[in-house]
Amino acid sequence: MHVTEQQIRTPIRSLHQEAVEAIAKWLISGRYHVATILPNEAEIGDELGISRTVVREAVRTLVAKGMLQVRRKTGTIVRPLSDWSLFDPEVLAWRFRYSRDPLFVEDMARFRAAIETIAVEICASNPDFNCKVLYDCCDAMEAALEGKGDWFAADLAFHRHLLEGTNNQFILHMQPMLDNFFDAMLSPEVLLPENMRITLPYHRAIADAIAAGDPVRSRQEMLQLVQKGREDILNRMKP
Q: Alpha-carbon distance 6 to 201, whole Å?
């Protein structure tokens, strides 16, 4: 049997994982709002076709992520967004997958712009920054458009190299969280195939501006890429 690359990248999920995501989807999509009490374990189990034990473990997972709270004699309560582990890789992936809240996209775009515009300015101001890595990533993305290689791996490598190139102790300390952010934002579920070819020139323009040692142009080119990503996600959210 031929195994596709997509199958390799999509592992078989357990009942527990499916239950966790199903309940998370309810919270993110607004089926159950903040301070709402969820149905009991038996009711959730009946709806999802799983045992109470699986439901209980799924709830524990979401409690650990700050999304739910279990109160004795009250039940399981939805916690406010401010309590959620927003940089948790699963929470990020679920929000990109199920959220229909434009504010989430706006906050994401502003956060990304704040970090990445600083990163490109620093890289462009550093004559020792290795621009070849950026061009190699662009070449890999272009090859992926022709079915040779993995676009998403190359795209992630491009952005990670920019962050690492800052040599800023605080940005580097945030690297694991930022990796989770970019993993979710640049995943196949978010970046539509038809938009990949469009965004490639944006990446090359950023590399060119940094190679020219032009922080101002680097910032402008990055802002254009961030804006394009924002528009793509908003369009995906439309019914």
A: 26
Cα separation, 141 vs 199, in Å, equals 10
Query: Do 44 and 143 sit in the same domain of this protein?
Result: no
CA distances, 215 to each of 133, 159, 220 (Å)? 18, 16, 9
- The Cα–Cα gap between 83 and 20 comes to 17
What pTM was computed for the model?
0.83
- Of the three residues 82, 97, 117, the one that is the final residue of a domain is 82
The conformation of residue 40, written as its DSSP 8-state character, comes to P
pLDDT tens string 77-115: 999 999 999 999 899 889 988 988 889 989 989 999 999
Domain extent, residue 77, equals: 5-82
CATH number of the domain within which 187 lies? 1.20.120.530
